[in-house]
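Example 3.
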Amino acid sequence: LAARLPWRGGEPPLTGFPDGFFTRSSPEVARGLLGARIVSTIGGQRTAGVIVETEAYLGPDDPASHAATKDGPTERNRAMFGPPRRAYVYRSYGMHWCMNVVTGAEGVAQAVLLRGVDPVEGERLMSVRRRGRTPLAGGPGRLCEALGITGDLYGHDLAVSPLELHPGWHVPDELVEITGRIGVSVAADWPLRFFVQGNPGVSRHNGSARPR
DNA sequence: GGTCGGATCATCT
DNA sequence: GATGATCCGACCG
């Protein structure tokens, strides 16, 4: 179990994201963000989790990406065309918030969807925000609710308060599983979903929620 | 354990 | 006008 939850062992975190960390391609960043921490002080109280599941979206040529629109940037997706390390937040199914980390150089509309975190700080508040429901933060909508992330953070630079990404723990390749993407109706088999094997923060999902 | 319908609305066609 | 980068509670076995 300790191997599945290396951050529970008290090992010291890495010192910083290397220069250009977020300027790389979205699959590289998606892999690199496993083990990183996301720290929220939204609403004045601290909640945090370790990222254990991500999904990469490749931009206009990726039919599953919100950047794949007929006429390029739109009001919704424009954050993805901007500089890296910003948040692209959107509303899903009219009721959930989902959050991406923008990657690639400015003008490159790539992003990494955060799909699951393992709560490590402020679990009490996370549970209140989630109204006692479980899992606390496994799933893209759930993690936004648990951390208090809403559309107010659209375009927010994730280097500063109230929502910050911090380097965390290195997750070895042996613990990383790569599969197709969840919940998309096209290009679902592209191997762009990354998660930490066996971690409880990995999203639950059923494939039959809606005919596709 | 699993499968399924419904909520609910911004966005795109 | 149709469709979701989802979640939840109900139902079945």
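The first strand of chain A starts at residue 37 and ends at 40. The CA atoms of residues 94 and 141 of chain A lie 11 Å apart.
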